[in-house]
């Protein structure tokens, strides 16, 4: 049964266009997302803990393209705000933490859906 993406910050249209019918490409792309995104989120969180805004901004920047590739436009907008706030020097830590928690919630929900999609595609290969 296909995963319902209607309530998620996830649109695989771009990925499917690039994949051009290749389930293997989609599986590999999702696998890369599942491996790299938690590490990047962890890097942002650690930088927040250290109040190292330069590192937090750089780690957030790394996430932007990945989120766009998976049509996670709300998440991408949050990451862009986090990056911008961090690079502006003296960000409001509480505001950043709120944005980061919202970002984590979006990504967690999308990750569960991507794991299901990956399993479905692998079964079809």
From TrEMBL:
- The source organism is Mucilaginibacter antarcticus
What's in the keyword line of the UniProt record?
Answer: Phosphoprotein
**Claim: ATP-binding is one of the keywords in the record:** no
The protein in question is named: Hpt domain-containing protein
| Gene3D superfamilies hit by this protein | HPT domain
Keyword Transport tagged: no
InterPro entries on file: HPT_dom_sf, Sig_transdc_His_kin_Hpt_dom
Provide the positions where the record notes the PTM Phosphohistidine: 61
Q: Where are the transmembrane segments?
A: none
Q: Which residues form the HPt domain?
A: 22-120
Query: Which domain of life does the protein's organism represent?
Result: Bacteria
